Amino acid sequence: MNLISTQTPTAELQALDAAHHMHPFTDAEGLEAKGARVITRAEGVWLQDSEGHRILDGMAGLWCMNIGYGRDSLAEVAARQMKELPYYNTFFQTTHVPVIALSAKLAELAPGDLNNVFFASSGSEANDTNLRLVRRYWQCKGQPERRIVIGRKNGYHGSTMAGASLGGMGGMHVHGGGIIDGIEHINQPNWWSDGGDMSPEDFGLARAKELEDKILEVGPENVAAFIGEPVQGAGGVIVAPDTYWPEIQRIVDKYGILLIADEVICGFGRTGEWFGSTTVGIKPDIMTIAKGLSSGYIPIGGSIVSDEIAQTVGAQGDFNHGYTYSGHPVAAAVALENLRIMEEENLVSYVKNDIGPYLAEKWHSLADHPMVGETKIVGLMASLALTPNKETRASFASDEGTIGFMTRERCFANDLIMRHVGDRMIIAPPLVITREEVDELIVRARKSLDEAYEQVKEQGLFVAK
Ligand SMILES: *Cc1c(COP(=O)(O)O)cnc(C)c1O
Q: What global pTM score does this model have?
């Protein structure tokens, strides 16, 4: 076989990719016919592909590239750490300097008594840890029957068995034969699609109340924890009404149930605070972290755990759980450098006080587009609902996602990465995006919406269900 490089012709790369690479969440045959887009370089918020297109990455990779592409110091830190100590484990009473420093830093950044970190290499793995950890906690408390964890439909907690089971994506539950036992789901707080005639405030309370109903249905003495994303990401950037989270907090407190905030997207500045829990005003017992922790430069995730849980579990011998790469020294060193840059450049405050409000104003201006219903944004994660009727909040008569997909294809054609979830369009750009780049993002988004709207009308698809 010839040496493969970025100089290899695109068609040849695509053929090899189709022959040997299984893509996540992808229709392989469909992709083979079309050929995958080959990304070769990136700088700041800009990607470059093998055909020389310069693409504005409105999704920060997969919600992770918080500090932007092309930061040399992360590469330098990784190289230095690889030379000094490329690997050692943290099992069997050993540790190393990068994992000590990162744990202490995370304890400092995390709110309240979340002072203890159990490391993994991804968000999914961290949620696996959480499922076992909360069940172990209740065993240690002498209440082993508390093993049910309640999540939400259309929530996303990863793709391992535990991650997919805690999440509420029906399509994922079907592939692989069901979910782990002892996991229940309640409805999501999506007012636009499910709110009917209720005010957002009443709807938020009603959806939170479903948690209490579910707890009473299965028996409070059997419930270990509730898990949710402060703002649902992969589900379509669903922002709960203001009434929702205070009511959830009240309910978990009332029944003494642990609260797990999945901060994999919301953490590390995405919502304008270090953690989304602060933004929505909740006090979790465990936070899941990954993605922005290293800005995607290297795989690392983890669980930040309260003193109460860590001490209770720690006082009862081994917790029989861990990964070869828990607290990997190179990953820990890179994550630390990422956090150092975030602090040095005041990126969290930049999102909260500067670029977040700037993007919000521009994003909401898209609401005058004939195909756009609600526009939602928290920090630098935003969504808009496509609809054939803004007044009734109708969905399209065509299969869910048809119009969203058509719009996303126009975005790709206009060198903008904006994703669709069903018929919602979503963005989550790198936190370092400038005002000029936001302007460019909005120009390309509007152009793509215009083109999609023309297509939708031409094909007779601008029709309500
Ligand atoms: C991406 C994501 C995960 C899974 O993280 P991976 O690193 O892909 O395993 C879990 N929870 C949320 C909220 C996510 O967005």
A: 0.98
